[in-house]
Design goal:
Blueprint (H helix, E strand, L loop, with lengths): L13 E14 L2 E13 L4 E7 L5 E7 L3 H7 L22 E11 L4 E7 L9 H14 L9 H4 L8 E8 L6 E6 L9 E4 L6 E10 L11 E6 L4
Length: about 230
């Protein structure tokens, strides 16, 4: 009996999960959707569908049929998944390049429905998202179908608060180790090639951190400043 909870031999289960992601860029006060992604995990069809729309209007769709594997994957997802979101502070700064948003829809065997949405960043996503995304990415990567929404470089990003400074760890080929530099604008990402004051070599961004002035990990009197991306010169 579906209505019994004590000694329940027929528990509720997740039957379907739909994940939507979109990135909007800002051009002259106009918001333009740069790319979007949709992943549907469905128990009834034992399939995972991945759809992508890229910035150059290329549309890609993959349908992976995994009999038994999809059911096993969904069995490991709690019906209470995606229930807790930390949320961003009130004084958080929006990314000047644009916004990344998400929407998660979850449906269960007994008809329960849940919808969670917000900004696609570490505090805006559910706290259990990294563990879920890692498992799904591992599954899809084997079939060559991984995407942006499952990339930790995207969902591990933290939005900067207004009273925080921008620190970038920059690696140089000759030294082999990264040095921490200060950036004046929040525009740098992992992999960007940059010029740093007082250094003739081109550096590459390894990571970006945000800290308040009083919590700076290095002395601000001695720190080097990033002059800009190589493409900007």
């Amino acid at each position: 009996r579906d209505d019994l909870l004590v000694f329940d031999g027929n528990p509720d289960k997740v039957d379907r999960i739909e994940l939507l992601f979109n990135r909007c860029l800002n051009f002259s006060d106009e918001e333009i959707v740069d790319s979007s992604e949709r992943i549907v995990i469905d128990r009834a069809s034992e399939s995972i569908v991945v759809q992508r729309n890229t910035f150059d209007r290329l549309k890609v769709r993959s349908n992976v049929q995994l009999a038994g594997i999809v059911s096993n994957f969904l069995d490991d997802v709690s019906v209470n998944a995606f229930s807790r979101v930390e949320g961003n502070p009130a004084d958080v700064c929006e990314n000047p390049a644009g916004k990344q948003n998400y929407l998660i829809r979850l449906e269960t065997k007994f008809g329960r429905k849940k919808e969670v949405k917000g900004s696609f960043d570490k505090r805006g996503l559910p706290v259990d998202w990294p563990k879920f995304a890692e498992k799904l990415n591992y599954l899809l990567y084997y079939y060559g179908v991984a995407g942006e929404i499952l990339n930790p470089f995207n969902y591990e990003k933290v939005l900067r608060c207004k009273d925080e400074l921008i620190f970038c760890n920059v690696c140089f080929d000759d030294s082999g180790s990264a040095i921490m530099c200060l950036a004046d604008e929040d525009q740098y990402e992992f992999g960007d090639c940059v010029y740093v004051e007082g250094i003739d070599e081109i550096g590459q961004i390894e990571s970006v951190e945000y800290h308040k002035k009083e919590d700076a990990p290095v002395s601000l009197r001695k720190i080097r400043h990033i002059l800009g991306r190589c493409d900007d010169f």
